[in-house]
Amino acid sequence: MSIRAPLLWILLFAGLQVCAQADTTTSDGLFQAARHAAFEKKDYVLAEHYAVKALGLSPKYADVRVFLGRLYTWQKRPDSARACFNYILNDEPDYEDAAVAYTDLEYWNDNNAAALERANAGLQYHPASAALLLRKAKVLAAMRHYGEAGNIVDTLLKKNSKNAEALALGNSIRDERSLNRVGISYDYVYFDKQFDDPWHLVSLDYGRRTGIGTVIGRVNYANRFRDNGVQLEVDAYPRISRTFYLYVNGGYSNNVGVFPRWRAGLSVYANLPRSFEAELGIRHLYFTSATNIYTAYIGKYYSSFLFGARAYFVPSKTSRNSVSYNLLGRYYFGGADDFIGLNLGTGVSPDERYLSPQLNAAYPLKTYKASLDFRHAFKLNIVTLGASLINQEYMPDTKGNQIQAGVGYIRRF
Q1: pLDDT grade, residue 16 (50/70/90)?
Q2: In this protein, which residues make up the domain named YaiO beta-barrel (predicted)?
Q3: Torsions phi, psi of 108, nearest 5?
């Protein structure tokens, strides 16, 4: 009896659970069945059936009506969704979940003015609501009010530095929060074997937010191979939609070797759901012949961290195709401009301007590298620091080390 009794209780408890899950005679049971149908089975029609039946038993069950409104939203039936949310808010204007769901409805349907109105109405009753503040920031960013959106993101991150959605949004609008920006940076590269003299790179840039996105002009000066050179560059970040924006780059130098004569770049960036981000792009360098490099990136914000992976692919007709990889980890200790990062990778990246001339090498360089980056904002002033250790086989069976150190300053106004 002592052996069979526990088994009997387990079977009885399991049976009660099955009955509870199958209970569609009460509004609570119907609500549970509706959520199971929507989230587990992805059957919105069945979920709607259960939710409507639950409201027939309990018309004032606000949680069920909000859920039904969200079902209508997902099924692209905005008028039905609005009817649900208005029903609740007319009766309970301080119902936070309804305000959040209503804001989402209008935002996802590109009704930014209406979405902002709904967020503000909810914030009148819940001024500290992280859910409503985040949605207001997203709407303001969609309306290109980047400064206001950024201020809200700063507030959210001060209260909760682990808010991954706020962090992702802050990064996506980081360089558009101010109308203007100027920056200066310096990179120093020391070689223990490959070259007798270190390399120096100084960059001065000015950026301005325009109707299509931020445009940045840059002048680069370098001393490499005991020679001096100047390069002119333009970067642009046109926005296509809330989800997608572009990176467009073009550059020219008359000092071939120190810089490529021509450089160009094009990428499509995507701000994805669940705090993911991604990029697909191409870089073009022309020294005395053309080199095309294809790149892909995926990143995920989690708590106060960003984790990412990037690959560069260089097709070749005369030798083996080249692929390099980079892993990224960042810890954000404040806003989007406050982080410390670690990068581990292989190969030479065209986006690392202090090393990019090595892509013109006759011998395919086998490179392994690790770098640390630091960035911190003091109001409108941003300081950047970086250091890298690079081990490179620059000739067959001959390896050397490189040490890079960089410092930068950005002023927004």
Answers
A1: very low
A2: 180-352
A3: -65, -20
CATH architecture for residues 21-175: Alpha Horseshoe (1.25)
Entry pTM: 0.86
CA triple 168-187-217, angle to 5 deg: 65
Instruction: Tell me the CATH architecture of domain 177-412.
Output: Beta Barrel (2.40)
Separation CA 354–CA 184 (nearest Å): 14
Packed helices 96-108 and 112-125: angle between N→C axes, nearest 10 degrees: 170
**Region at 17 (left for phi over 0; alpha for psi -120 to 50; beta for the rest):** alpha
Token couple for 190: 């020391």
- As given in the structure block, the two tokens for residue 114 are 């209406």
CB neighbours of 125 closer than 8 A, spacing ≥ 6?
93, 94, 96, 99
Domain ranges of the chain: 21-175, 177-412
* pLDDT per residue as tens digits for the range 84-108: 999 999 999 999 999 999 999 999 9
Does the pLDDT value for residue 231 go beyond 60?
Answer: yes
Angle between helices 78-91 and 62-74 (to 10 degrees): 160
